[in-house]
What we know:
Elements (H helix, E strand, L loop, with lengths): L1 H8 L6 E3 L13 H14 L5 E3 L11 H18 L6 E4 L2 E2 L5 H15 L7 E5 L7 E2 L3 H14 L5 E6 H6 L8 H11 L5 E6 L1 E2 L10 E2 L8 H9 L8 E3 L5 H14 L3
Parallel strand pairs: 1-2, 2-3, 3-5, 5-7, 7-8, 8-11
Antiparallel strand pairs: 4-6, 9-10
Helix pairs in contact: 4-5
The structure holds fe (iii) ion (2 copies) and zinc ion.
Amino acid sequence: MAMAKTALSIGANVFQFFTRNPRGGDAKPLDLSDVAAFNAFAAKEGIGPILAHAPYTLNAAAARPEVRVFAENTMRDDLDRLEHTPGAMYNFHPGSHVGQGAEAGMDLIAAMLGRIWTKPYSTLVLLETMAGKGSEIGRDFTEIRTVIDRTLAIAPDAKLGVCLDTCHVWDGGYDIANRLDEVVEEFDRIVGLGRLKAIHVNDSMNPLAAHKDRHEKIGQGHIGLEAFRRIVNHPALKDLPFYLETPNELDGYAAEIKLLKGLAQC
Ligand code: FE
Ligand code: FE
Ligand code: ZN
């Protein structure tokens, strides 16, 4: 509830939050009366969809079984909780294969999602496009599509989408600053725009294909302001929810929301 009021106060109509400490651990018990108050407030104020972000330590592709067990239990617990906030989406980093190879890693992720989807959750689960740092899976659109296909082969009813992180795809080698149309077309060809449900809107501290994943304030990084003007106005993107993950305090976010709204032509 407090998060919704904060979002509104800085001019946002969507927001992302961590389901628990981003470095892992237990989530606070759900306060159901607060959840009910949030749902009513969000409906009244037109807030949403909200995006829940899994902890960074959630790695379904880990080599150590106990890490995979933590990933599965955490995602299941998060999705159980999200049943109380209809319309929310859940975003997670597909994982890092830590030397086992991308093929094995993608199999592990799909297997976990398949086991989770033996329960008919209503929340849409988004795989985030990654920068390809270390052994990250989801470093290109083909890996995202592969995890989706392998999951659907196990659990045809799994509700899966994709969250495109502008910093990550840039760091991953997709030139959204100079070839946005081609990148969007490539996404459509490989994954399908129907699966694209959210944008993480971040500039990057690093040049194209750096595989680093260091977010920068909008317009102050290597992607640049003109690229964000094209991104927020692109016909395939402009109606999606945009979530900022830039290095800012609240007043910085308020300014960036204003900036992005100004770039978006009516
Ligand atoms: Fe993320
Ligand atoms: Fe992100
Ligand atoms: Zn990132």
